[in-house]
Amino acid sequence: MFTLRPARETDRAALYRICLETGASGQDATHLYTDPLILGHVYAGPYLTHAPGFAFVLEDQGSGEVTGYVLGVPDTAAFEATLDREWWPPLRELYPDPAGVPRADRTPDERIAHLIHWPPRAPQAVLTGYPAHLHIDLLPAAQGGGQGRALMTTLLDALRGAGARGVHLGVGESNTRAQGFYQHLGFRELSRAPGAVTYGLTLTAPS
Predict the structure, then answer these.
(1) How many domains does the chain have?
(2) What pLDDT is recorded for position 26?
(3) Is the pLDDT of residue 19 over 60?
(4) How confident is the model at residue 25 (pLDDT cuts 50, 70, 90)?
(5) Which residues form the N-acetyltransferase domain (predicted)?
(6) Is residue 64 a part of any domain in this protein?
(7) pLDDT score recorded for residue 177
(8) Are the C-beta atoms of 181 and 145 separated by less than 8 Å?
(9) How close are the terminal C-alpha atoms of the chain, in Å?
C-alpha cells in the first residue's frame, strides 16, 4: 500500500536516490556514476527547491520509504530563468565544465556536468502549446497497480489548476515501456532526436 502526498524538504535524499536508481532509461544507474548526487542535482533537486507546489511522492506505508515521485513546473521558460539565476551557479563551482574533453570521451559524470554548465532549453515550438513540463520516476516496488497513473493525475490536475495549457516531457528512445505509459495517458509524440523522444499533452483548450 502506498500514500501519495506532497513532497517535503525531508524527502530530498530519497528523490536523489530514486533519480539515480532509475537514471538509465528507467533502470538503475548507480554503477554508471562516480558522484551519486549529480543526476539528482539536475533532474530532482531544482524542482523540490524552486517548484515545491508541483512535487508529489509515493510513500510505502509499510516501510515509510519514498518509492516514487513526479515533479513538474507550469511555466518551463520561467523555471529555466530561475535556475540560471539561483540553482546552476553554485553547482558550477562544484563541477568543472568538461568542455575540453571531447564529447565521445566524456564519462557519465562529465556528461551531466556539461548539462550543469550548458542546460538545454525547451524549444519555443514546444513551449507555445506545452509550456509546462514534468519528470516521473518510480522504483520497481512501486510500479504497476496504477501508482504511476495516480501520480500523473495529481500533478496534471495541479498544472491545470495553475493555468498551464499543455505539458511536455522527454523520455529515452529505448524506454519503450515508459513511452507506452505516456501514450496510454493521452500524450502524443511531438519530436524525436537521437536517443530521446518528446511527448506533449493538452491540458486546457486555448482561449
Answers:
(1) 1
(2) 85
(3) yes
(4) confident
(5) 66-206
(6) yes
(7) 87
(8) no
(9) 41
pLDDT at 160 over 70: yes
- The burial of 168, by beta-carbon neighbours within 10 Å (0-12 exposed, 13-18 middle, 19 or more buried), is given as buried
Q: Are strands 55-60 and 132-138 parallel, antiparallel or unpaired?
A: unpaired
How far apart CA 58 and CA 5 sit, in angstroms, is: 7
What proportion of the chain, given as a percentage, has pLDDT over 70? 99
pTM: 0.94
**Cell match 501514450: residue?**
183
In sequence order, what are the residues at sequence separation of 6 or more whose Cβ sits closer than 8 angstroms to the Cβ of residue 68? 2, 18, 57, 58, 136, 137, 138, 139, 142, 147, 148, 151
Distance between CA 184 and CA 178 in Å, rounded?
10
71 occurs within a structural domain: yes
| Residue 169, domain member (yes or no) | yes
In 61-187, the DSSP E strands lie at 66-73, 132-138, 166-172
Q: What type of residue is 42? A: V
- C-alpha 139/C-alpha 125 separation (Å) is 32
Can you tell me the distance from the alpha carbon of 71 to that of 151, in angstroms, rounded to the nearest whole number?
A: 9
Q: Does residue 207 lie in a domain region? A: no
| CATH code, 152 | 3.40.630.30
* pLDDT exceeds cutoff 70 at 205: no
Strand pairing report for 2-6 and 55-60: antiparallel
pLDDT at 141: 87
Domain that holds residue 130: 2-202
